[in-house]
Design a protein that fits this description.
The chain is of the alpha/beta class. The protein has three domains: 132 residues, Rossmann fold, CATH 3.40.50; 121 residues, Rossmann fold, CATH 3.40.50; 80 residues, Rossmann fold (3-Layer(aba) Sandwich), CATH 3.40.50.10800. Helix content is 44%, strand content 15%. The chain contains 17 helices and 14 strands. It has a five-stranded mixed β-sheet with strand order 2-1-3-4-14, with helices on both faces. Strand 3, helix 5 and strand 4 form a beta-alpha-beta unit. The protein is globular. The protein starts with 13 loop residues before the first helix and ends with a helix. The N terminus is likely disordered. Bound molecules: 1,3-dihydroxyacetonephosphate and iron/sulfur cluster. The site of 1,3-dihydroxyacetonephosphate has 11 residues, from loops.
Length: 370
């Protein structure tokens, strides 16, 4: 797939922004934003740093930000403070004439990289040798994926999902065909199936590096939910021991985690859900309540500061920020905004038309069931 040129670490002129103090960067970014007025909207994913999120017009999870990108047609520029797949989604859902900007093109997602279109094509072909794949399998792709995978789903009767709507999407898919190929996150698929009470024997893990995903023809024919062997490098680091530690140390604590965590963690936790669910749940809780939160560190630290009447703990001593989300920082944002204010569109994310057409179909199916 064609992409805009990816300059790892950003162009050379970023260096001069890196030398500026945070206060000055904040003032200059705000000034550029004022100059642009309604021509720009800044979207910030919940994992972004404070120095970035302070400039966001809307903060949210993947679903909320996709919905905003689809609805707000009046802004010429959508500056997406998040990762590459999110900016691609915004480009797919936005209207002609709108430009989506990702302040640092190196902000990717390691999970999204775990499923490549060649591997998915191959899996589809292998499944096609075992069963009538187009009639029996619905491809479901987590939005944490490249645009060509979303296009694959659109073209093959499939759909996208986020951590907010995985259950509705899986139900939608099973109403149409008997099996689902769910990629790239094994854990979101498995945790959703667990919540739905799906028996373990209905699930199978598809290893893209093994012939037929590592399974016999009989096992594939029997399974109903084929889970791609992919994971989030941040969320896989939360361990059941972290949950047990906080439960012992703070009796009465409520543990809430993201469904990208391993099922052993999710099953021990009290609640699980998207980043927006986590924020809303803790924000709505009674003063004095105690929370252990298993998701990205920036989100948890902000929650802690914004909810001073509650006790909020980060669930793990070893998990760090999402290193790719972290690439969007005050210097990159200021650089992108000042260029826009000067009429230079930098770091534009532009999905090729062919992929866009089919990917939009898969995303629209999801928005319709959400
Ligand atoms: P949300 O859709 O829950 O915000 O999750 C996005 C993500 O990348 C989690 O790692
Ligand atoms: Fe990707 Fe994990 Fe980072 Fe989310 S937290 S953007 S899934 S690497």
């Amino acid at each position: 797939m064609e992409r805009t040129t990816c300059l790892i670490g950003g162009p050379a002129e970023i260096q001069s922004y890196r030398d500026l103090p945070l206060d000055e960067l904040a003032e200059r970014t705000a000034a550029a934003k004022r100059r642009l007025g309604d021509r720009v909207i800044v979207l910030g994913h919940n994992y972004q740093r404070d120095e970035v999120i302070r400039h966001a017009d809307v903060e949210g999870d993947s679903l909320k930000l996709s919905q905003i990108a689809a609805e707000r047609s009046s802004h010429e520029y959508i500056v997406f403070c998040g990762v590459h797949f999110m900016a691609e989604t915004a480009d797919i859902l936005s209207k002609t004439g709108q430009a989506v900007i990702l302040p640092d093109l190196a902000a990717g997602c390691s999970m999204a990289d775990m499923a490549q279109i060649e591997q998915v094509d191959q899996a589809w072909e292998q499944l096609g040798r075992i069963l009538p794949v187009e009639e029996t399998v619905t491809p479901v792709v987590y939005v944490n994926s490249a645009a060509d995978l979303k296009a694959f789903c659109g073209e093959h009767g499939g759909i996208t999902c986020t951590s907010s709507n995985a259950r509705q999407v899986i139900e939608w898919a099973w109403q149409r065909r008997e099996k689902i190929l769910f990629f790239p996150d094994e854990h979101l698929g498995r945790n959703t199936a667990n919540k739905m009470g799906i028996p373990r024997e209905d699930l199978l893990v598809w290893d893209p590096f093994q012939p037929n995903g590592g399974h016999s023809r009989e096992a594939i024919k029997k399974a109903r939910l084929l889970l791609w062997k992919g994971f989030c490098s941040v969320h896989q680091m939360f361990q059941p021991a972290h949950v047990r530690y906080f439960k012992e140390k703070h009796p009465g604590i409520t543990i809430v985690v993201h469904p990208e965590c391993h099922e052993d963690v999710v099953n021990l936790a009290d609640l699980s859900g998207s980043t927006e669910f986590i924020i809303k749940t803790v924000s709505a809780a009674a003063p004095g309540t105690v929370w252990g939160v298993g998701t990205e560190l920036n989100l948890v630290n902000r929650l802690k500061h914004r909810q001073p009447d509650k006790h909020v703990y980060f669930l793990s001593p070893t998990v760090c920020q999402c290193s790719t989300m972290f690439r969007i920082d005050a210097p990159h944002l200021c650089w992108a905004m000042e260029n826009l204010a000067e009429g230079h569109v930098v770091n534009r994310i532009s999905v090729p038309d062919d992929d866009k057409r089919w990917a939009r179909i898969a995303l629209q199916r999801m928005l319709d069931v959400s």
